[in-house]
Amino acid sequence: MSSEKFNLLSFTGKMKVLHLSWMAFFITFLVWFNHAPLLQAIAGSLGLEPSEIKTLLILNVALTIPARVVIGMLTDRFGPRIVYSSLLAICSIPCFMFAMAETFEQAAIARFMLGFIGAGFVIGIRMVSEWFPANELGTAEGIYGGWGNFGSAAAAFTLPVVALWFGGDDGWRYAVGVTGVMSLMFSVVYYRSVTDTPKGSTYFKPKHIGAMEVTSKGDFFFLLLMKIPMYAALALLTWKLSPKGVSLLSETTALLCYVGLALLYVYETSHVWKVNKNIFKEPVPEMHQYKFKQVAVLNVLYFATFGSELAVVSMLPLFFAETFGLSAVVAGMVASAYAFMNLMSRPGGGWLSDKFGRKSTLLILTAGLAVGYLVMSLVDSTWPVWLAVVAAMACSFFVQ
């Protein structure tokens, strides 16, 4: 743990790690949402139907669900430096694949694979926690999350301009390709510039990799229950891709996917049992016990906040373009206002948590989120554009 002063203008020690980590996170979001502001051009170029566009949006986030679990385990095992660098480098490949796609099927495969880059968030959280003390951690992780998450806003207001600069029907391809080059290049920068911990500190690894440890019998079954929604979401995606949806998968392939998901759940259950079977033999010492319901509550809240953010960021540029008749460039710039709030709201939320406590801050912000989305649901073509933007920004403040 580094004890140097918290100075945002510094680029040494822990501050260097923080800045490089939010830059890495920024690029992951830039790549992850490089399609959102270009959907009109992409749909025209590939001849996509509305149902196929919606499928691409779903595929773009589908793999992120299990990917974050896998990336989290890899980070525990190998450290954030090598995992973040590898993720940036490897995910540049499907980025280039999407830029060169000629059919819906090719674009769908690329977007599905790109969902993996959405797992970058968990790597940086571990990295930042290794470098900052508890009294600075909320602010540091707020800066990491907020400034990094701004990558989606940057994609919204820069990529349409880049596409226009290249010009022609393939302008969107070059814009997407540029983000892939950035991801590949920064993977080298990150690998050569950071370390997992401050000098002299030890990078602690969990005793068991592959399953979460709980401390009571009830929490064991609660953990298994909390894993079901992930498999249900993937099963729903399979149904969407089957002949009953967009027919990207055959009936046989879809059936195999269902069976595979069931077997994977059984396999994961066996890992949970292997790690936690001792709690059925003897009680865990009181000093090591914790309530899993706290994890479950945070899980649900994260589903409501970050999950909704992904949906809004994916759809908002197209919504503004179709609702208010805006050009792709203007719609992208207007929609970026939603993600723009990351710059202030996430660091602000971290600061509020450090100062006033996490529980009360989280409750107030969650209530604000509910009101914000209620207002956004009322937006239609009769609203002034500026008022719709204000509503999106106000809602985003609580979401972030």
Commentary on this structure:
By secondary structure, this protein is mostly helical. It has two domains: 13-196 and 290-399, Up-down Bundle (Growth Hormone, Chain: A), CATH 1.20.1250; 216-289, no CATH class. It has helices at 13-32, 39-46, 50-62, 64-78, 80-90, 92-99, 104-114, 120-131, 134-149, 151-166, 171-193, 217-241, 251-276, 292-324, 328-340, 342-356, 358-376, 385-399. Helix 1 runs parallel beside helix 9 (134-149). The longest helix is centred in the last third of the chain and has 33 residues, at 292-324. It is globular, with a radius of gyration of 22 Å. The two termini are 27 Å apart.
Quick rundown:
The protein has 400 residues and is mainly α. It has 18 helices and no strands. It folds into 2 domains: 13-196 and 290-399, MFS general substrate transporter like domains (Growth Hormone, Chain: A, Up-down Bundle), CATH 1.20.1250; 216-289, no CATH class.
**CATH class category label of the largest domain:** Mainly Alpha
- Approximately what portion of the residues adopt beta-strand conformation? under 5%
Number of helices: 18
Query: What is the third-level CATH name, the topology of the largest domain?
Result: Growth Hormone, Chain: A
Content-based structural category: mainly alpha
> What kind of sheet is the major sheet?
none
What's the structural domain tally? 2
CATH H level, superfamily name of the largest domain: MFS general substrate transporter like domains
Helix percent band:
over 70%
Q: Provide the succession of SSEs.
A: HHHHHHHHHHHHHHHHHH
- Low-confidence runs of at least 5 consecutive residues: none
Distance between the termini: 27 Å
CATH architecture term of the largest domain: Up-down Bundle
Q: Tell me, what's the shape?
A: globular
